[in-house]
User: Which sequence fits this backbone?
């Protein structure tokens, strides 16, 4: 971690930057949506901008409603994604494993977390925060543009899925006018 | 339009590039989500990469299901946004006026259009396609990164809204397990 960088997980074991995991990342790359278009050299450059942590099973690594300006990439292990309903009762809305990214929305807009992520096994994950992303774009614009494009494609794909689900849900709820 | 560039609207009046509208764009800039962070000089550079068209009221400028790799920015006039329900009946899902952008999802992924856009008045709009965006990023990386960031923020904001609506809709539909 460069001097002055924030430590987003002071209570967890800090494993250093993600360069050590480049080979592992490359192995599971076919499952990593975000890195489909990256070659090994680009991955290694990118990995140097991420910090890695290990968390025991049961750790809440992201908490719904908390502020946050970073995303995570799962390297080893699994998480479940929970969100409170309008009465405050948490419901599982998904799960994620190696290669999946979490928290991109808050990385981009700095708004409170949409959902909570809880480790369902021991977890190794890499963190990319806004300050590092900004540095990366300034230092390595070619890789920076690629990451922005990948994030765009990821959010875009998710927006299409969620929009379609919303249309179908609204259609089932609303009385038809015929 | 540079030689070899596709004409996305061969049946409409082609008005040339968007540089002529920079002052108008600057005037309505407080309503233009996509350009909040652009100064006039950056806008002028960006505008040179967009082509403008005029369409009479009633024109379907984007058709649900069609292929497409461009987005539009409305400069003058209004559109309504329609999407077919599962039985094929079109329903109005929104409307948009000056400064709003349409079709970003297909610009990014080239997948079929999610909804149709029909001019509800005479319309002047600017077009940005993937080839031009790629050129812009290569020629003017600083402005290119800014546009990608703005697109990210736009899609991100929309994803938060739609995800929240979906959660609320599902909650109302599903029987509560208590």
Assistant:
């Amino acid at each position: 971690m460069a001097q002055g960088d924030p430590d987003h997980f002071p209570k967890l074991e800090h494993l250093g930057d993600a360069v050590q995991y480049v080979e592992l990342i490359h192995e599971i790359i076919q499952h990593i949506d975000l890195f489909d278009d990256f070659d090994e050299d680009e991955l290694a450059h990118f990995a140097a901008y991420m910090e890695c942590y290990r968390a025991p099973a049961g750790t809440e690594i992201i908490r719904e409603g908390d502020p946050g300006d970073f995303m995570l990439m799962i390297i080893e292990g699994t998480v479940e994604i929970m969100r409170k309903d309008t009465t405050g009762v948490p419901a599982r809305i998904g799960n994620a494993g190696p290669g999946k990214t979490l928290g991109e929305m808050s990385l981009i807009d700095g708004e409170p977390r949409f959902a909570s992520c809880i480790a369902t096994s021991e977890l190794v994950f890499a963190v990319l925060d806004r300050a590092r992303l900004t540095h990366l774009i300034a230092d390595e614009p070619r890789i920076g543009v690629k990451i922005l494009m990948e994030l765009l494609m990821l959010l875009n794909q998710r927006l299409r899925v969620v929009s379609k689900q919303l249309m179908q849900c609204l259609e089932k709820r609303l009385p038809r006018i015929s």
